[in-house]
């Protein structure tokens, strides 16, 4: 046994059953970077698409929030209702953005492995309370991968945002000397550029993280050779059970075959090692049919049943071997053996009608048992 097998190293790809079981348990690949990038990018695109309506609603909301009715000062208890009304107005103003971000939150899971609900994933896992497991999570390969991803996140997002700010420093300074409305428009434009650059950096990071998470998920589900053999045994049945089933099937087939021997017209034998029982009904069959065949012990049993039921037995070694090799149980004999079998049946029919006088001469069967003029 190799060292890998002794160590139980997981070298085999997961089977379909293992993947299916993992999905049913809620264990499916997930990329937080892809989910975050999808939500953030969808939010930026929604701001670009609905900026006019959102800005108009936001302006109305700010006017309402900063200019309360004077009567509220005399009735402090009405402030709670006023705050609730302001919150509702804010939700109405931002509903396109909220709805699009909510829908985008499903994009990552769908792309990675689909949406699945599993009650097993909601059950508490007490193994996670183990200090040893906690140390593995903090200092294991997963922690190193997460730390590396955090560094990449800072590098990507920081670089993209830094470049936008670097090129926009002068325009930011100019906002101080612009009218309020103009400064707001230019400031929002700069903010949009910054968000687009940040979203692009997050998408770039997600393009690396999603395939890695998929690969890491498959790696964790890999199997040892022993696990693979055990699963195959569970799904297909143990060799002992399969062997017993085949034995019972063979016994049943032999029993049915022996029950058909008494209906045969003739049994062609080797004379001891091969036996093939043939049946022919004129007008119902196109050609003689094999109802039983066997070698050695099965051949002897066929001969015994035939003797006990007065079925004619004809010794024709080449023909018996050819019928056994090429014939199929329950099927008509091969075309090339028609002539030889016809001679045998003619001899059998003569025996049935013989009432005295010279005994019908046994036919001299000349047949190529291999069908190719020689051994294969």
List the helices and strands and how they pair.
Elements: H1 3-7, H2 16-24, H3 32-49, H4 51-66, H5 79-104, H6 107-112, H7 131-139, H8 141-167, H9 169-174, H10 180-220, H11 225-236, H12 239-260, E1 266-269, E2 274-279, E3 289-295, H13 297-308, E4 312-315, H14 317-326, H15 338-353
Parallel strand pairs: 1-4
Antiparallel strand pairs: 1-2, 2-3
Describe this structure in words.
The N terminus is likely disordered. The radius of gyration is 43 Å and the shape is rod-shaped. With 376 residues, it is mainly alpha-helical. 62% of the residues lie in helices and 6% in strands.
Proportion in helices: 55-70%
E-strand count? 4
Distance between the termini: 40 Å
Number of helix segments? 15
List the helices and strands in order: HHHHHHHHHHHHEEEHEHH
**What is the beta-strand fraction?**
5-15%
The main sheet comes to: 4 strands, mixed
Radius of gyration: 43 Å
**Helix- and strand-based class?**
mainly alpha
Mean pLDDT: 79
Q: Uncertain spans, ≥5 residues at pLDDT below 50?
A: 1-7
Concise structural overview:
Helix content is 62%, strand content 6%.
Features:
single chain; 376 residues; mainly alpha; four-stranded mixed sheet; 4 strands; 6% strand
């Amino acid at each position: 046994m190799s060292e890998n097998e002794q160590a139980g190293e997981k070298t085999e790809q997961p089977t379909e059953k293992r993947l299916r079981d993992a999905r049913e348990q809620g264990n499916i690949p997930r990329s937080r970077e892809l989910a975050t990038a999808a939500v953030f990018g969808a939010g930026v695109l929604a701001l670009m698409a609905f900026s006019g309506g959102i800005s108009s609603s936001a302006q109305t909301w700010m006017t309402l929030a900063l200019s309360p009715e004077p009567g509220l000062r005399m009735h402090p208890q009405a402030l709670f209702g006023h705050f609730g009304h302001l919150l509702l107005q804010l939700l109405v103003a931002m509903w396109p953005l909220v709805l699009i971000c909510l829908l985008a939150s499903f994009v990552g899971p769908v792309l990675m492995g689909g949406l699945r609900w599993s009650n097993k994933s909601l059950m508490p896992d007490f193994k996670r309370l183990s200090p040893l497991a906690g140390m593995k999570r903090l200092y294991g390969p997963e922690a190193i991968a997460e730390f590396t991803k955090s560094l990449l996140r800072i590098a990507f997002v920081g670089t993209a945002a830094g470049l936008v700010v670097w090129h926009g420093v002068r325009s930011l300074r100019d906002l101080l000397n612009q009218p309020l409305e103009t400064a707001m428009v230019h400031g929002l434009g700069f903010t949009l550029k910054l968000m687009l650059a940040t979203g692009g950096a997050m998408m770039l990071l997600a393009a690396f993280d999603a395939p890695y998470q998929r690969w890491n998920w498959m790696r964790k589900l890999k199997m040892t050779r022993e696990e693979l053999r055990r699963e195959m045994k569970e799904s297909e049945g143990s060799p002992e059970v399969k062997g017993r089933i085949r034995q019972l099937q063979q016994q049943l087939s032999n029993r049915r075959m022996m029950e058909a021997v008494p209906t045969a017209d003739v049994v062609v034998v080797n004379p001891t090692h091969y036996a093939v029982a043939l049946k022919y009904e004129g007008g119902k069959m196109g050609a003689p049919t094999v109802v039983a065949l066997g070698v050695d012990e099965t051949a002897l049993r066929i001969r015994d049943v035939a003797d006990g039921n007065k079925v004619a037995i004809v010794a024709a070694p080449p023909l018996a071997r050819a019928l056994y090799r090429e014939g199929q149980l329950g099927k008509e004999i091969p075309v090339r053996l028609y002539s030889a079998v016809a001679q045998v049946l003619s001899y059998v029919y003569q025996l049935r009608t013989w009432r005295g006088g010279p005994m019908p001469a046994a036919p001299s069967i000349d047949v190529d048992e291999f069908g190719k003029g020689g051994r294969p």
